[in-house]
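Hey team,

Filing this mostly as a record. A colleague (T.K.) asked me to run one chain through the structure pipeline before their review meeting, and I want the input and output archived in the tracker in case anyone asks later how it was produced. No errors, nothing strange. Just documentation.

Input sequence:
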Amino acid sequence: MIAIRPLIGKVAMTKASTVDYSAALVGFGRLATDAIAGLTDVVEAVHRQIAFPSRGLGPPSAQGFAAGIATLVYSNIRGVTRLVDRGLSVLVPPASPANERKLSPRHEAVVAALNGVVGDYLARTNNPLAISMSLRCQGRPLEIERNGLQTTIPQPTGKLLLLAHGLCLNDLQWNRKGHDHGAALAFDLGYTPLYLHYNTGLHVSENGRLFADSIETILEQWPAPVQELAIIGHSMGGLVARSAYYYGTAAGHHWPQSLRRLVFLGTPHHGAPLERLGNWVNTALEISPYSAPFGRLGRIRSAGITDMRHGNVLEDDWKGRDRFASAQDLRAPLSLPLGVQCYAIAASKRQATGHPSLDLLGDGLVPVNSALGRHSKPGMRLEFSDLHEWIGYGMNHWDLLSHPAVYDQIRGWFGVHS
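Output structure:
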């Protein structure tokens, strides 16, 4: 079985984190061989359950002989996959300026999706496809050093806007249907947008710590006096932003004092039902010894995905617990940042009907109540002002990135006292 354990890496601040085609080929090859080895474990487990459902059935010598053959077959499969993996590493030329070709936006989207599903495993195994956190501008990692920033961004303003994408996405996907909230706010209100690029398969709390560190560094090196810092987080990106504020404050960082606005777009503050359903299916599979091996496949999903079950933002929300267990919501309450103007936008695929049970169904991934921080327990509620929350009807989760009405709402909030 593929073992999945998160690995926290350093923030990529001075080195480009783009993957060239050579590294991508090695990464995809390694991931494929890992998958074959993992599926071999599953098939072998099913074989054993069918052949020997309980000890004591059949002559021990026959069992031992059959088991020995099976072990030989499956070990040979694993051996071949290891040889293929080593062969790819030898045959593919190393990355260099001479042979480097950057991935296309389409390929970057595939890599981002893989990181969302198995990103913690990619990081743990040092797979070249694992994304290292960076702040990017126009799809390229920034060298976070004052002179380098001045060269990359010739006219930096004192209004810094950071945008954090959601699960399985990347920074390029803020541009949807010809619209980009960051670019639009730059044109309309003079913000300088920077885009977070990160491995969404890691725990939210791990990405929160890394994001907090990178914000502290960018503010220290920003070539213009920072008058205002704002963050927009889509889906998981909003959880990462909340986590970053918590860990940045705990570490004594200065940037939380500069944060003025925090906008959440379809953020599952109290979880997403699809992850809870997936966890239930996984638990049901493990009831039977015959289906239990297939339950292992469900355990391949990343730590980032399982954090979405209840909306984990802190390490204490998951540490020391089986993240695949069908457990109740054990999170400690975490309020919105004090002194920060916080805004929440939810979406509902239905048009407004005036019937609460229908109007609050959500955008296909996140229920309206979760996106607006509402909870049945008063201590868990996130208290957004009535003027700071908005529901977009007839929209899905992805429309939050590009719908004109969503941007108009954000611009209206940002335009106050700007």
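Quick notes for T.K.: The longest strand covers residues 341-348. The mean pLDDT is 77.
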